[in-house]
Amino acid sequence: MDHFVIDQTFTDQDFSNRKIPGKEYDNCEFVNCNFTEANISVTSFIECTFTECNFTNVMLKEASFKDNCVFKDCKLLGVNFGNCNPFMFSTSFEGCVLDYASFYGFELKNTKFIDCKLLETDFTEAIITGSEFKNCDLTKTIFEQTNAEKVDFSTAFNYTINPEINKLKGAIFSKTNLQGLLHQYQLVFK
For a 10 Å CB count at each end of the chain, is N or C smaller? Predict the structure, then answer.
């Protein structure tokens, strides 16, 4: 069995509810693939692109995403990225739905989230320094003991971040969205 898959495109594949053999996928593209409740543990993805794929409740124990794996227009509901292999973890998300996902205690520096929805996504104790949330909906997203230094929240909206329990030095916010930093004080804005 070949453990290395290089420069291949997978289109309309259904991997749902299956264990994907631990392989290394290098510079591969996955288009409209269904990974719902699949087990892709101990699988390595290097410079891979996922477009319009469904990763709902996928199992990622020790899965690796390296050299900027890109997720475009993907559904990643309930995905626990905290179970991934942290070594050289590098991803970006564009137009994705990451509702109920978890990055609990995970390090994902300089990660780009562009036009994403992150309803109740958990960044508790995560290190997200230098990341960007461009035009992202952060409704009920959890930031507790999060290192969000130098993170760009300037175009993010619907966030609630308590500056007293998170590291925010150098973080960028829009003047019009500052109420998200003052929510715990129950102030009234007019």
Answer: C
Q: What is the C-alpha separation between 62 and 75, in angstroms, rounded?
A: 20
Per DSSP, the residues of 83-141 read GS--TTB-EEEES-B-TT-B-TT-B-TT-EEES-B-TT-B-TT-B-TT-EEET-B-TT-
Give tens-digit pLDDT for 151-171.
Answer: 999 999 999 999 999 999 999
Q: Any bridge partners for residue 30, and if so which?
A: 10, 50
Nearest in space to 96 (alpha carbons), one of 133, 64, 65, 128: 133
Give this prediction's pTM.
0.92
What is the per-residue DSSP string for 5-48? Answer: EES-EEES-B-TTSBPP--EEES-EEES-B-TT-B-TT-EEES-
| Average confidence score pLDDT of the chain | 93
Whole-angstrom distance between the N-terminal and C-terminal Cα of the chain?
A: 65
Q: Are 74 and 53 in contact (CB under 8 A)?
A: yes
**Phi and psi, residue 81, nearest 5°:** -70, -20
Coil/strand/helix, residue 71: strand
